[in-house]
């Protein structure tokens, strides 16, 4: 029985394996290609007495030795010389797929085109004329063969039969540009004189590969000492350089693309009006040169609006939980255990006040992370990064800087490490210097607590403005540094493939948001807990000190406080919070909470509430918070419409009351600007030192001390002059 | 010459991040063909493909990193940081 050995070639993801499975059914053998970790699959089927053996070659975009897959496909077609190569071609992306077709034609292998994805092409309004395509490809048979359509498979089987009887044969591929064609002819003639090479490789094909500079084949040539071919190659390349410079390989590739485009022009009827995809339509607006940035800023405002409005009821609930039932139960338990008074004070004023003040932001962060995860999973965040980069790029930053800078919004530490993707050292260091100005999520609790205390009606605007100021300062600093310290830093362009828009997957969104929120909770249970305990000790040393201002912490903070007086927050409490905030920015809040909690009346100590009352209160509070959050969510998502008017004044925390007493709104803004711009945290400084060396880390340290002080002072003094103080 | 036109964009757009979709539109080719051309330029050693945060599950920073993850599938840059003079060679 005659056997036809058929190799299935094609680009990845064109339906080649589907076609292979449909043709061979269960009669398959799967293994690895000899010496490669690339999977090999082969199978057989019968057509009217003809046995067809099908070898499924690895998906390849071209026949080069660039990747193992491409090398396997090339070696099989060229060296094993199958009876027929079936090039599986995606009809919806014909131009791209025909590049491989032109290369297979160059090998001289018998070729047949199997058109898949014809249904998708039709959906896109494309009409592929198989006869015209065959004509354009010098008579290479073209068969529609979408595996899901039975008719397609039958046509392919018939084509195999016709091929086996020798009914169809194609012409040689068209010539390249005359200079290249001359060089190929000369070189092929030299190759033909070397029997060992000519037996193994088609001379013309080998000549093309050598002119393209295929390293594997050039190595083969050198190893076998084919001096005449090497001399002919050198002479040919010298001649071609006069026309193409160092781009001989590109000229050959261009010729293939031209062939592919010409074939498409002859065989494919495009829709009268080009079909615009959903992603393209949305991108025209959201990545628009002018509209892109306002849309990004508006979306970010909506996110912070959600953070503030939706999380506020939960924030009140958790604050009540910590300052009420949890404190009461802890005090009761410690009393039961006859714990000394200082243990009770440490637990209540240190651990609960410190850690609790940070944990109240868990709902806010969860809302933030949920919103960001939704934007990310939908594909928008990539566009936001792109839009933002356009603004930053105009200021002289490296094209790839935007990735670390965007990461900086989450946490500055991984952002510093992410600069490793930038090869140019100056550009890397410059980006690393700017990352601290990207407002990390640890700074959010500070903005929220100050925003809600000092600007209860516009807290979302304040939070949003802080992020915006961070971007503006980073851009300005980038502009200055790239023209001074980092003048001449490489600024290579970067082409980015953006993912398509899609409906976010809710489990993925939730998993991602929770992962980040859990990280925040872990931090509260480690770094913030440790700092809270240490701070409580420092606030109570020397032992028995009654006024925290006289404590070790109070005295050190009081020494530093005058430095901040020009910026409007020259109190020892503010200075102390900024000092501990260097450990982690959330600690600014926990420090203020501990200081002000220590100064507040101990109103809860005489409470007689039962455990049952507390549990009922907690559950009821959670229910009310959820209802309120739902109302606020609806209100936020319907701008301009107030569905649920606010009833009464929101409850105030001890910290909010204390902050309103200690800060004027102007001083509060100056303080927030300082928090935004000053030293991010010890972990970031460590990362900078590790990545760029201590010299640059020290420069960053100085920059993130001088700049925030200057900005905060300027804003405060200017505000006072304008009568806002 | 499409391939040279693409290299020109890299060479003459310092500090820019270019969207593949926008380049395809500018060159009047399909995004799929541009993708193939970018791969050809990678194969020829002119460009380097850069994998961007494409796989969160395999990333060591996933626990602390927020935002920016998965922002883009991949990117391309010039194989070596080319000086202005080297870039000029492409523009001729």
Write the layout of secondary structure elements.
The complex is a heterodimer of chains A (725) and B (92).
Chain A: E1 3-10, H1 16-24, E2 28-32, E3 39-47, E4 50-56, H2 68-80, E5 84-90, H3 94-107, E6 111-116, H4 118-123, E7 127-128, H5 130-136, E8 142-144, H6 150-164, H7 178-192, H8 195-200, H9 203-212, H10 215-223, H11 227-244, H12 248-267, E9 268-269, H13 278-286, H14 292-336, H15 341-359, H16 362-378, H17 380-393, H18 402-408, H19 412-418, H20 425-434, H21 444-454, H22 459-483, E10 494-497, H23 506-539, H24 552-564, H25 572-580, H26 586-599, H27 611-637, H28 654-662, H29 665-677, H30 682-692, H31 694-721
Parallel strand pairs in A: 1-4, 1-5, 5-6, 6-8
Antiparallel strand pairs in A: 2-3, 3-4, 7-9
Chain B: H1 2-12, E1 17-19, H2 20-27, H3 31-43, E2 47-51, E3 74-78, H4 84-91
Antiparallel strand pairs in B: 2-3
Description of the molecule:
- The complex is a heterodimer of chains A (725) and B (92).
- Helices cover 64% and strands 7% of the residues of chain A.
- Chain A is of the alpha/beta class.
- Chain A folds into three domains: 3-164, P-loop containing nucleotide triphosphate hydrolases (Rossmann fold); 178-244; 296-603 and 652-721, no CATH class.
- In chain A, a hairpin with a 6-residue loop joins strand 2 and strand 3 (39-47).
- Chain B has 92 residues and is an alpha+beta fold.
- Chain B contains four helices and three strands.
- Chain B has helices at 2-12, 20-27, 31-43, 84-91, and strands at residues 17-19, 47-51, 74-78.
- Chain B has a two-stranded antiparallel sheet with strand order 2-3.
- In chain B, helix 1 runs antiparallel to helix 4 and helix 2 packs across helix 3.
- The termini of chain B are close together.
- At the A-B interface, helix 3, helix 12, helix 13, helix 16 and helix 17 of A face helix 1, strand 1, helix 2, helix 3 and strand 3 of B.
